[in-house]
Amino acid sequence: MSNVLHISDIDKQLARLNRANTLGSSLADSIQTWSKSSLGTKPVINSDRKGWALRLDVVGPPPFDDWSLILSDATNQLRSALDNLVFSVLTPLSSSGPIKNEKLIKFPIASSTKEWKNAKVAIEHLPAQYRDRIEQWQPFQRLSKGGNLEEDGLVWLQRLSNVDKHNLQVEPLISTSEMSHEFALEFVTLEDAGISLPPQVEVINPKFEDGALLMRQLTAGKIQSVKGNYHVKARVLVNLEGGQYGITELLANIWEYTALTMQYVAGIADDEWKRWHSSV
Hints:
The chain is α+β, with helices and mostly antiparallel strands.
């Protein structure tokens, strides 16, 4: 068997990468559509008119279940692409007879040398050059070079794969770093305006719920009205391994790393790979 494969040799596996990419785009579009149509703000003047607050206005609930399913389906496509890559290498070998323990065959992912001792049985029938590449690409190899497992895309792929799609929890987060505003206060009198300088504004990272406080401003003088626009953006997070991570960014990073993994293991030349990648 050749030491390298070509794009045409793994077209079915790359189709799964393409599908995951399409799902990722669909997820990002869905989040953006919901954010634009269902997420707004409303200014509320204090009862004594000495200040005002901006509150979150949630018109429609986020489609959490849909987002979770899309994320899960995209993750499964990426995991299957790697597993199928192993089978694509084994297929020519199977013509010579049945392969032992075929049900155990998959692309192993190990975060420690101890895990690798057990995981490598999944590729024991592969030609040596492919076994070596898969071992060299394992997350645990980072540790010997002073690296961090948190930087490895296969670790994150494994974490997402281990969560059942019905238990995958996603939720939106309102980030004040992604807010912009153009508002002006009209005071009852010029004196009210004068004694209210400089402005005392407090910006808040709220919990996601209708009516949540985004920001407030106290004034010494009385406010007549609040005019202007205020834009707020929500990031959608997934709860994973005790932390929260932006799902579109996480999925994009895992996709890119899975693609690099396939190129390295298959031994596809850079020029050939770049041509495929630019077409995605």
